[in-house]
Amino acid sequence: MSKHQNYEQRTEQLITPILEENHFELVDVEFVKEAGNWHLRAYIDKEGGITIDDLTLVNHALSDLMDREDFIEESYILEVSSPGLLRPFKKPKDYIRNLGQDVEVKLFAPVTFEQDGKKYSDKEFVGILKEYNAPSEDTTAAGKVLLAFEGDDQLEIEIKDIALIRKAIDF
Q1: How many angstroms separate the CA atoms of 169 and 163, rounded?
Q2: Is 111 exposed, middle or buried (0-12, 13-18, 19+ CB in 10 A)?
Q3: 80 - beta bridge partners?
Q4: Residue pLDDT, tens place only, 11-30
Q5: How far apart are CA 118 and CA 153, in angstroms?
Q6: Are 161 and 108 spatial neighbours (Cβ–Cβ below 8 Å)?
Q7: pTM to 2 decimals?
């Protein structure tokens, strides 16, 4: 595990009790360098959406804990944020929450499939997330999603082949 992954993991351990106490959900923690500065970001959410007051509460509590623990060597900017509408799915609950919803999927490589009696090859899809089967701890059993399209067409995709999956937003 890299030093920066350790920072993320320890931050997750510190923020979890704060979130549980307030019935919030941790979406992700990342430690990244942007424009010459290190940023420690915690993305949080809750049923019905996160508010500015929620973000402020968690930011103050986490900031106090981070100052007390002081385990990050680099100087950094702490940010507590909502994940946003276009966040990628990272955890099983992201998939489960979006069952029955339109999703956008981008694959690492194109797949060949049949739709309306014609063969296609593509690596970007928008469809309804019909099923989610989590990857098994047994490495021979891969996780899969099932996408449904207009008509009766469906496509099963292994999660390991997905570069990006997120809720499809029609603007």
Answers
A1: 18
A2: middle
A3: 42
A4: 999 999 999 999 999 999 99
A5: 11
A6: yes
A7: 0.70
- Two structure tokens written together for 6: 């350790």
Q: Which residues of 8-39 are buried (b: 16+ CB within 10 A; e: fewer)?
A: beebeebbeebbeeeebbbbbbebeeeeeebe
Angle formed by the axes of helices 3-22 and 52-69, nearest 10°:
130
Please tell me the number of Cα atoms within 13 Å of 170 on its side-chain side.
Answer: 5
Q: Which two tokens stand for residue 69?
A: 């623990």
Q: Is 18 helix (H, G, I), strand (E, B) or coil?
A: helix
User: What one-character DSSP code corresponds to residue 9?
Assistant: H
The DSSP H or E segment spanning 6 is helix 3-22
Between CA 77 and CA 40 the distance in angstroms is 6
